[in-house]
Amino acid sequence: MQSITIVLLGIVGMIIGWFFYSKFIATKIFRLDDNNVTPAHELNDGKDFVPTNKVVLWGHHFTSVAGAAPIVGPAIAVYWGWVPAVLWVVFGTILFAGVHDMGALWASARHKGKSMGALSESVIGKRTRSLFMIVIFLVLLMVNAVFGVVIANSFVDQPNAVFPAWTAIAVALVIGQLLKRNFSLIPMCIVGIIVLYASVYAGSYIPIELPETMFGLADTANWIIILFIYAAIASLLPVWMLLQPRDFINGMQLIVGLLLLYGAVFFAMPDITAPAFNSQTAESTPSIIPLLFVTIACGAVSGFHGIVASGTSSKQLNKESDARFVGYLGAVGEGSLALITIVAVSGVALAASPEEWHEVYSHLGAGSVSAFINGGANLIASGWGLPVDFSSTILATMVVLFAGTTMDSGVRLQRYIIQEWGEIYSLSALKNGAVATLLAVGTCLLLAFGAGGSSGSGGMIIWPLFGSTNQILASLTLLVISVMLIKLGRPAKYTLIPMFFVLVMAFFAGVIKLKEYYLAENYLLVFLDAVVLIVSILVMLEAWSVISRFKKSEATTTG
């Protein structure tokens, strides 16, 4: 099997999904209407609510939701075989992720830019809001704490990526100021990309490393602290100043990265050496169903996308119809990244023969970011003739920048959640942005260093919960959207069917993990997993009650 066949089938499927299925959902189900004033115009405050060009907003949304997850998940899940991984990425993107992301944008924009947690109160009920926000906060805590570790480890392992990663922030600040002064977007985009890749090239010769020990902490721990200081500052700045231009630049560099990877496939046409279905899995390997779905997670459908869509993106939506471009096409972008990741870790670029591939993928979890960077760098080198070291720096920088933009948005979203709690419980101190940000960063650092000691890797302790918790959150988001559609008298099957499927897979995975954590005597994970499972059941029961009452009142009125 040649990798080009997988690429062509996958990309054609996603293109069909974009042109036909997304248009149907946007016009017939969500009925996006530009006559509706978006929160960005209605509540424009120049800081969080800012009308934004849809291409720039797409860049923010895409890079915020992507992070490193659509690389990590598929690079691990291919262990079960490339066929099930490809099928779930492609069909999950078309039928699940695109609808989920566009729906979250639409639902939030119709409710003054409320986050999905706050929105659940309006749609389902007050009790649901509190339950929903517990799951959201847990997901944000996991993402922020772990991505801080991922970036810090990348800086230590790939010091060549440090210079371009921080250069991207400086470039974003300049572009943000120029955009505010109505400079043309396209020339700035071109110049920004040139400067970014020049810094990547320079980074190959300017490795930046911290001392192995400083202030009594290891270099990784010091990087984690530096990253959270930066994230705290970034989360308080107006979105136009750093968040939008940084995410837009990262979105453009991702497009360049994808062009390099996909172009390499067309030029080199490498063979696939991984098995279509892996029959040589280790005895301890869990069942492909339901673990495949929660492992790939963000590569197909992700609850974190709903948090970003309703937390920051909906507040910047210029026109309601832009929800299709930003939401659905953002999901397609992420699906395309997941697809090329599968190709990079399944072919001769990573392993020259099936035997070598099995050596790399000796057990579930053996392949991850390193497999993507190594396989992707060799793929680019063989297709474009670029040096392997330079190609490796490009991909390492891409991973770091993705994880960094997710941290930027994640800390800001945590701040929103804490401020919403301040509104709910009339705690004036929590309504303050600076206080809420300090609490957000403080909880992440407390987890990082409280549970992980001086290494700062404590977030990794609860990371195993991310897959099932994230998917359960996606199903809850789809549930809120479905209830909205039912109340509006519109067909809800296009969101209810994906909701039911994702919920069953995620819940089943959560139960399997609960047993695993209990047998390992990891009682923290047992407790948190049980909380997420119980909360999801309660939210579902509450929603069912609301739908039943609505149907009864509708029947009575009709009668």
UniProtKB/TrEMBL annotation:
InterPro entries for this protein: CstA (IPR051605), CstA_N (IPR003706)
Keyword set, alphabetical order: Cell membrane, Membrane, Transmembrane, Transmembrane helix
Membrane topology note: Multi-pass membrane protein
Name this protein carries in UniProt: Carbon starvation protein A
Coiled coil location: none
Subcellular location(s) of the protein: Cell membrane
UniProt family annotation: Belongs to the peptide transporter carbon starvation (CstA) (TC 2.A.114) family.
Domain CstA N-terminal residues, every copy: 3-346, 364-508
Organism: Salinimonas profundi
Parts of the chain that traverse the membrane: 6-26, 62-82, 88-109, 130-155, 161-179, 186-208, 220-241, 248-268, 288-313, 325-352, 384-403, 424-449, 461-486, 493-512, 524-544
Predominant place of localization: membrane
